[in-house]
Each structure stands twice: as C-alpha cells, then as structure tokens.
Amino acid sequence: MLVLNAFGTNIGIVLALTVLTGASLFPGSNMALAVILGMILCVFNGLTYGLMSVAMPRSGGEFVWLSYTVHPLVGFATNWGLVIVFCFAYGMYAGMTANFGFAATFASLGVTMNLPWLVGWATTVATPNWVFGLGTLFILISIVIFILGPKAIRTFLWVVFVPSMLGTIASLAVFLGTSHEAFVSTFNTVIQPYTNSTNSYQFIINAAKGAGASFPTMALVPTLMALPLGYWAFVGFANSAYVGGEVKTPGRTQPLAIMGTLLLSGAVYAVMFWKFYDVVGWDFTTAVAYLYYSAPSQYPLPSPPVLNFFVGLVTANPYVSLLIGISFILWTFMLVGLGPLIPSRCMFTWSFARITPEALAKVDKRGSPWVTVVVSGLIAELFLYLFTYTNMLDLVNYTIIWAIIFFIGGISAILLPYTKKSLFDASPGIVKKKIAGFPLLVIVGIMNEVLFGFIIYFSIINPAFSGPTGASAYGMIATIFLSGIVVYIISHYVRKRQGIDLALVWKEVPPE
Amino acid sequence: MGDTKIFYATDIHGSERTFIKFLNAGKFYGVNVLLMGGDITGKMIVPIRDQGDGTYKSRLLGTEYILKTESEIQEIEKNIRFNGYYPYRVTETEKQELDANPQRVDELFSKLMIAATERWLHVAEERLRDTGIKCYITPGNDDRLEIDQAFEKSDFVVNPEGRVVQIDDYHEMISTGYVNMTPWKAPRDIPEEELQKKIDALTTQVKNMGNCIFNFHCPPFDSGLDAAPKLDANMKQVISPSGVVMAPAGSTSVRKAIEVHQPLLSLHGHIHESSGFKRIGRTLCLNPGSEYSEGVLRGAIVTLSKDKVKSYLLTRG
Questions:
Q1: Do the beta carbons of residue A412 and residue A441 sit within 8 Å?
Q2: Which domains does chain B have, with CATH numbers?
Q3: What is the ipTM of this complex?
Q4: Which of A423, A501, A505 sits opposite B314 (nearest CB)?
C-alpha cells in the first residue's frame, strides 16, 4: 500500500516540476519550505482518510463514508467527480508520458550524451499523432495489466517502482555530490551549442533580465502563497483509502501506508529542493522558470526545465544518466499503468450498491472487475483525444475539483461519531481516540476542512496556480458534479420502479 | 399472490446486536420472510470473575473492567453478548476447576450456546409472531449439532435444514448448513461426497426447480463468492511476494447442483470477505458477506414475483 500511495503522489513528477513551477508562479518562494508546510497541512487530510479507512475498511472511499453518514446521493456525486478526475488524469498522463516523459528524457539524454538524433526524437514524440498513438498504447497496456488481476498489478508496481526509486535516489546522490561551481562549469560546456555562449549560465540570467524578469530574494510571504503547490505535491498519498476492501489488516496498514507515504515523500522533496537551490543557484532558477513560462520564444534549452534534466547534465556517467532518464519515464508512465485502479474500484462499488447496472460488477476468474477496467480505459481514451487534439481540457480546474472532493469527504469524518454512533463505537481503538474530550476523528476532520477551504479559496483568487477560473471553468466543475446527481436521481427512479430503494443499502437497522 | 420479499442474512456468529437487527429488519425493510443462512452461534465464553470482595473482573476486546455493581455487571454481559460471546459469572474455585478440565469447559460452552439460542428464538417469537413475517434460521457449519434441539422447542421459528419448505404459494426452498471440509473441522464440515448426497436428496424432492431457492451455507466453488485467504499446513495465511494468496473455498457439489438444476435463486454465506452476486446460468447467486464483529448486519433484500427474481439489493444495516 505504501508503494501504491507513493505512486499516487508520483514522487518523480513532483520532483521534476515543483521547483521551477514554484519559481514561475510564486517568485521568491522557497519550495523546500513550502513542501514541509504542505506536508504538515496534509497530515490532517492523511489522518482523516486514514482513520475513515480503518473505521470503514471498504473499497470506494468517500462514496462509502458519505453514503453512510450523509446520504448516498452526496456520496455518489462526490465519488462520481473523483472518478471523472481520475479518468481525466489517466488519459492526460497517457499523453504526457509521450510528450513530456519521453520527450524530456530524450532531450536530456541527447544533450548529455551528445546524440543529436535523440534530441530529434524528443521533438517527434511530442507531435499530436505520436502523443495520441503512444498514449493509446499505454492505456491498452494498463487495461491488460488490470485484467490480468491483482497479482499482475502488484508485479507491475514492484517492477516499475524499483527502477523509478533507484533513479530518484541516483538523482539525489548526484545533487548531493555536486557543488555549485561544478554545475556551472558543466552547464557552460554542455549547453554552449544552444546559446552560442561560453558562459551559458550567465547568458540565461541575462536573457531573463532582458525579457523583463525580476529577481526577488527568498522570502516567507511568497512561500506561504505557494502553499497550495506544497499541498499539490502530496495529492494521491491517500489512494489506498479507495481500495480499502482489498487491504488486509486495515487498522495497521492504512495509517502506516498513508502517513508513511506523506513523511517519506515530504523528506525526499525537502532535501532535493534545498539541494537544487544550492547547486543550480537561486537567480538561475528564477531566470530559467521565467524564460520557459513567460518568454518561451527566448528559452534556449533543448528540454523543458525539469529537475532531472539538470541532474542529467552534471553526471558524467552515462549509465546513471540513463537510469535517471528511464526513472523519469517510468514515473510518468506509472500514473497511466495504475490509471484503472481507482475508477474501476469505485465504479464496481456503485454497481454493488445497484446505482449503476449489474454488468459493471462482473469479475473474471482472477477476481478482476474487467468491465469497469475497460470502461475506465475507454473514458481515459476520450480524455486523451481531447487532451491531444482540442483545448477543451484547458477548462478543467483540476485543483479545485480535487479540493472540493476532499472537502466534502472530510464531512463524513466530522459526522461519523454522531450520525453513526454505533459504527463509530464498534471501530478499532485508534479511530475512537479522544483529545480533550473531542474525538480525534472530528478534530482532524475539521482541520481537513480548513485546509481544503483554504485551497479552494486560494485557487479561486489565484488562477495562475490552480488553473482556469471564470464562468466556463466553474460551469465545467458544476457540470461534473451535477451530472453525478442526475445519474443518481435517474437510477433512484429506475430502481424504485423495480422495487428497490437505493438508500436502504446504507441505513442502519435499529439495534434495540 | 403479490410479490414475496425476503431478507437474507448469515454468519452473525453469536453477535446479539446483529441478531436483534435481523429481527428488526423484517419491519424495517418491509419483508415477508426473514432468512438466516447459518453460523449463528458464538465462538467463545468471556468469564466474569468473582474476586471475592464484592467486585467482578472481566476482559472484553482488550479492555479490562472492574465491576462494582449489579448494573455494571449486566451492562458488560450485554456488551459481551452484543459482540458475539457468551458471558459467564464464575468464582475463583470454579475457574480453577474449569481450567483443569477442558471437557467441562466444552460442556459449559454447549450449555451456554443452547441457552442463548433458546433465548434468541424466544425473542424472535415475541417480536415477529403477530407481524405476519415468517422466520427461517438454518444452523451453519460452525454451529454445534446440539443447538438443533433449541429449534425443536420453537413453534414459530423454522429450522429448514435438510427439507423442502414452501415459503409462499410458488416458491420452494431447500436448505443445508453443512459445508465441504474446512481446515478447522467444524461440527458440520463433511466430505464433498457426503455433501453431494445431502444436496441430491433435497433436489429430488423439489416439485418446481425453476422457482426453487437454494439456501446453502456454502457458496459454489470458484464463483467469486468463495474467495478466501489460502492457508498453509500451520493454518497461516500464504503470503507471496505479490501479497496474500486468495483461493476458492466453496463447494463443487453446490456449484454442480446450481449448474445442473438452475434454481431461481441461490443464497450463501460462509466466506465473510467474499460478498457479492454472481449469475450461474439463469440462477442468481448471492453472498451478502458478514461484518458481525463491527455490529454491521450485512444482508440481501430479494423480491420474488411468481417466476423470477424481480429485484435484489445487498445491504449494510
């Protein structure tokens, strides 16, 4: 489960993107500090989801919790939004594995190993038809893995996890053993063909200044402003909550997996980002981020400014360079490889509750819910198409949707001790702990709401971070959740005609 | 005749909380028939020890209780029963005698189990007799044979084990709580061949198999309703590098009977963690699973019209 959650947070992608994205969106922010603060905030989200998974060790996450504590309509609509977001990410990452994972790695390896043809490939795999073709292939691979069943999924997890983590550890080791002077020297040598300057390092800083960049010093206020990014770094760390029914000894495993992932990934991020500033340099980081995001026509580097590109530059060992490159591709691909996991389990649970047709609950002899796996893949394929050939997905504010789901999910933790007292009382001791007379579950639930209330508010006032805002983007968010409500209401009336009251699934029979 | 609505639950293992819920489910879900699929008795005695100074001591779910008043003792007894165990007040002398004589412990266990079952059946009668709701309870493989005598004393609750019962004008039901051998060698574990004979003896008595209900504690083999952790010779879960190894633990005889006779509905339990539904040919097979230890009553509401399953819903009450 720790491995599953580590994949959910996608340590490799976060490492690759966060520092430069932070430098662009929040000039003056220290992302090493921002992720530590984000980790502290996420403790409440982790505890909320971890404890709820122990109290109700069933697959489906907030669908199950909200259906019990509030109403199945709320549970379904929230979980429906989650499934759409997961399928969206599944399709989008299928495309990004090609135009980002492969492209950035080819460019990085091509430059560091002096292979111009590989740099050319980087451009080729980023073209729309290649992105769609490769993305479709990756989705098909993920469907096959999931249809082969739990054993194949676990094997996939380990086979991909080991080289991914080795590459990340290698990156960390390379940075820890590199001085700022060594980085500048190597950078100037390797990048000279792209800048035509013997001092490419200074060339880039000067280019950014010329393009209008400002160079603020590191400060607390922009770091606090970057907190949502510090939170984003951990999204997915509680994924095991959605497969609760498949977790053995959930009372021990779930809190360990969720909180362990949070602490492990937080430590890796903080060390790596701190070392990045130290080795690459503060002004250079600001300059590269500014040129890539704000003045792309003047951006001279052959690769997007991802952390592994800079790490790859300073290692003289081609094998280490290759390992780091493969690791980056695998970190991107694993999000696709695991794409069906949560949507298929949630859809299966809906069918179990008779909201969706019985066919969605079909499992094969290996125990794989193959119908929901295929449906998840088909939805992802649609999103891949939209991602590749249209601008429609630019309307999706991923951050706000996630925050809304976690905010609503947190309500179940606050209500459980009061609306389902018997279930709460029958929960393991860890769930029933009290602090100053108040259930721990309620306290962490309230803090969860504070965190996501802040994220939602901040996302609305700062579109640069969260994604699109405005009428169209809000309309898209409303459509996602309202469509879930409409599906539930239709199902309610269809089942009612068949003599089924959907709400009965979750109602407790009086125990006296 | 209108539709017949059945509420089926199973594997409550002595949990009084879930048994009371089962009885209340009749009115709560608005059903005509309550059906319990087996494994109704508890697995353990929890002693409440007289300390000789007017206080009693007991230990429940890892917590030790010192009980000073009769009402505190009654409260802990209620909690013990709610969690599926049998409370027993014992002096230090008797405790020592019991510790020295396992045979006596076994006899005491049977006595408490029969008494608890009789009390449950009495409560069932009190609550359901004037409601028009029929109540069937089948013992399961974990239930000792002695409890059958408790059912014989009840003129309201029906034990349908080993016979055909007509649950309404159109639907017959055949039942057995016996299962194929388990690693625990429970009281109603029998070899697959014997189980086959029991089932064959029942199916030959059915007049209209197309409308028949199979109420077999054991689920059909390899149906997805019978996936349980695989155990090694030391009764430990087999763990492979890819996690806990699951294996089908159902009965081939049950599977064969369903495939050959194609009843309308087949109800099962036994494997708590393998709840779900499965169609084998035309037959709808259900295993609602069990979460008795959490006080949750898992069940299935099934509505039968004259010749079909009109609807079904798995519940977590």
A1: no
A2: 4-41+113-316 (3.60.21.10), 45-107 (3.30.420)
A3: 0.90
A4: A505
